[in-house]
Design a protein that fits this description.
2 strands, 2 domains, 141 residues, two-stranded antiparallel ribbon, 3% strand, single chain, mainly alpha
Length: 141
Amino acid sequence: MGYSIGEVAKKTGLTTHTLRYYEKEGLLPFVHKSGSGLRVFSDNDLGWLAMIECLKDTGMPLKGIKQYIDWFSAGDATLPQRLEMFQKHKAKIQEQIKQYQNHLKKIDFKIKLYKKAVELGNLNLAMQDEEIEAQRQKIYK
């Protein structure tokens, strides 16, 4: 089935401007045009858009995404490069998740601290609580 750029925008939440930009940057080399020059997106193209958004949302620059698409287009000779790219990207994401988990611990601590402060009506008293102090030392080593 074929979709117009407007239909794809509605399905994906991307703007038509973004879709045209992706095409201009070479990220959508598989999208066909009708006899009248209109873009006709396939279900496969929607899959590509989902992957592009996944990579973009996880911090891969458009240049890297373009490289992946170029390697894909080049065929099986580039399988090792694609594998390495995804392995490196996964490692980067895992490191970011680890950093976010550490940040989340600090935010959770602040929530606990301020709940205690609200309960006691005083931040200084809350900071003197043994449980709060033990958690603070654990987080801010």
